[in-house]
Design a protein that fits this description.
Radius of gyration: 22 Å
Helix content: 25-40%
Shape: globular
Distance between the termini: 23 Å
Largest sheet: 6 strands, mixed
Number of strands: 13
Structural class: alpha+beta
């Protein structure tokens, strides 16, 4: 696909950030994040709002989301809210329609790289913008908006929230958009991690060639998988679509690992869970913005009668469901921020130990299914599809279609 760059600029907040807000500290949760940018791509069949209005509403939205227009300090301890702006690119696709792109991208997500503002594997954290945005128009009238967000400052929920609020400001005015709360660093301040977090046994970012593929599961397939699980066990009465799909893929990956190594091995699936509304800490509002999630290791162990030939989907779904519920249940009883940080650190240590163990088949899974990605409406309707392109991590991501 040939894409022509039309313009590039830094979009700054419409009003200067007040002097008392010029520094945004990193939180304990921010310290846990890898130095990667996460690309999210919104596909619209038509984009009738003028580009000038899109840019103006982004500038207005940054008044409230001012840390996103700043830059990380040289030592990486905070964000200098200096209003340098977000990287804003406008481009035009010359040789394909949006429908053709979506058809081809289903088997080759690498086609989407030209829709991303910059190479996500080569950022310089102290000088790169925290957010990059690229608008790509198509001759058929379609529009693609790609958002590239630093994981050090915001998680997937916050990233999708920012784009939703930008769309609201564009469609209905800034007064209708949410006012974010940046209280996480004050409740969970930075810590000396040397005594809390074990050194990683293997690098998070690996210098290996990776291929990204998209698989679509029809609703009928998901319902059949749910029925299969319900018929096989009484432990999970009503499995969710995330549970059955994650475990279906996990089961396949376990089988591939077994064929590769000649025997069934232990396997750990690591997934992330949003902590908003799931702790006993009273001072955290629902509109909290930033990184606020924790990782849960789900460990399948050989033995207990489970042999290669009788590993069934319902075994993994039951394990997945029970582990997630137990972990969330523990967090709901925690009312002390220090206790929650200890809990998060404990899980990270388990994950690092498992990931660094050559005898364990380790996998990262994430779901964006309950994030407000399809609530993004700039005035011409909701996205046709929201997806992610390649990231420099071995990862399974589940999104709605």
């Amino acid at each position: 696909m040939e894409v022509k760059m039309l313009s590039r600029k830094m979009v700054k907040p419409a009003n200067p950030t007040p002097k008392n807000l010029l520094t945004s500290e990193l939180s304990f949760f921010d310290q846990m994040q890898p130095p990667v940018y996460i690309p999210t791509i919104y596909f619209f069949q038509s984009g009738s709002t003028s580009r000038r209005r899109l840019e103006a509403s982004l500038s207005e939205t940054l008044i409230r989301f001012y840390p996103l227009a700043g830059r990380f300090s040289i030592d990486g301890s905070c964000v200098n809210c200096n209003d340098q702006g977000v990287d804003y690119l406008e481009a035009e696709a010359l040789d394909v329609t949006l429908a053709e792109l979506l058809d081809n991208a289903s088997t080759n997500l690498e086609l989407l790289h030209c829709l991303v503002p910059w190479d996500i594997q080569k950022p310089k954290m102290d000088i790169s913008p925290i957010v990059g945005i690229q608008l790509t128009t198509f001759k058929c009238g379609g529009l693609v908006i790609c958002g590239l967000c630093s994981h050090i400052k915001l998680d997937g929920f916050s990233g999708s929230t920012f784009f939703r609020e930008w769309s609201i400001a564009c469609r209905a005015g800034l007064d209708e958009a949410m006012l974010p709360n940046f209280c996480i660093p004050s409740i969970f301040p930075k810590r000396d991690l040397s005594g809390m977090i074990k050194p990683s046994g293997s690098p998070f970012l690996r210098n290996i060639k990776m291929v990204t593929r998209r698989f679509v599961f029809p609703q009928k397939t998901i319902l059949n998988l749910k029925s299969e699980v319900r018929a096989s066990t009484g432990n999970v009465v009503n499995p969710s679509r995330v549970e059955v799909l994650a475990c279906t893929l996990w089961k396949v990956l376990i089988s591939i690992d077994q064929a590769k190594h000649g025997s069934l091995r232990d396997s750990t699936l690591c997934t992330s869970v949003n902590l908003r509304g799931r702790t006993g800490i009273k001072d955290i509002p629902q509109n909290v913005f930033g990184n606020f999630y924790f990782q849960i290791p789900i460990r399948f162990k050989r033995g207990n009668g489970t042999k290669p030939e009788n590993l069934e989907l319902h075994h993994l779904v039951s394990l997945f469901s029970k582990t997630i519920k137990n972990e969330i249940g523990e967090c709901s009883k925690i009312s002390d921020p220090n206790e929650l940080m200890t809990k998060v650190a404990k899980n990270i240590n388990i994950i690092r130990e498992e990931k660094g163990n050559d005898g364990v088949n380790f996998r990262f899974f994430n779901t964006l299914c309950n994030f407000p990605m399809y609530d993004v409406d700039f005035g011409w309707g909701k996205p046709e599809w929201v997806g992610v392109t390649s990231v420099p991590v071995e990862l399974v991501v589940m999104v709605n279609v």
